Recover the amino acids of this structure.
């Protein structure tokens, strides 16, 4: 069945209009969340500001919580793109540093206002299963894979499960983001996280050197 050019153009226009409406809904919702507070803003408020019906809103989102998920999708897509670049690195500690600093750079680019909204939405009283803490997200999976590789190659202590260490590392960087939000972005988030990453990597490298030294001693004693 052939679709004539007019119908095809109409469908394309409809799709583009829908995407534009979705973009406006997200942008307006974030602005309202930042100004009024996530809990105080309703779907009606968002629709009124954009000039669309609630039906139009629900064509794109099941709830205002899902608006925030759009930002997480951007983050997760970014993490997976960075993951592809990590394949060129041999050292798992280099991978760990590059991955988390690229993640932090994205947070800084998104800006402190948006990150405040994201964090506030995730700790709202009604939020029982915050997406921020979803262990199936690319952030956790990639960090866990790098940690496991580091443990297998003797760069990271094997004393704790890889998923546990991954969680500790993510929470350390997340703490910096939280403090950045509390200070209204008064310090350089990327630099501070870079300094923290250097300290962590230095500790792991010290373990690596100690591990290699012990292996050599064992080999020499045989």
């Amino acid at each position: 069945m052939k679709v004539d050019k007019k119908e095809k153009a109409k469908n394309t226009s409809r799709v583009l209009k829908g995407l534009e409406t979705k973009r406006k809904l997200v942008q307006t919702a974030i602005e309202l969340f930042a100004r009024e507070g996530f809990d105080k803003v309703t779907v009606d408020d968002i629709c009124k500001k954009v000039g669309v019906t609630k039906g139009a809103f629900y064509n794109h989102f099941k709830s205002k919580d899902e608006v925030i998920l759009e930002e997480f999708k951007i983050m997760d897509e970014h993490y997976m793109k960075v993951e592809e670049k990590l394949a060129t690195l041999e050292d798992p500690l280099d991978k760990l540093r590059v991955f988390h600093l690229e993640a932090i750079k994205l947070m800084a680019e998104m800006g402190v206002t948006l990150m405040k909204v994201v964090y506030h939405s995730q700790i709202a009283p009604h939020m029982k299963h915050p997406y921020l803490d979803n262990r199936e997200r690319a952030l956790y999976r990639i960090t866990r894979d790098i940690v496991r590789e580091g443990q297998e190659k003797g760069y990271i202590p094997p004393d704790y499960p890889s998923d546990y260490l991954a969680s500790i590392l993510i929470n350390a960087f997340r703490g910096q983001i939280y403090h950045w939000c509390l200070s209204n972005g008064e310090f350089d988030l990327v630099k501070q996280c870079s300094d923290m990453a250097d300290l962590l990597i230095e500790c792991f490298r010290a373990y690596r050197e100690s591990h290699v030294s012990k292996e050599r001693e064992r080999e020499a004693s045989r």
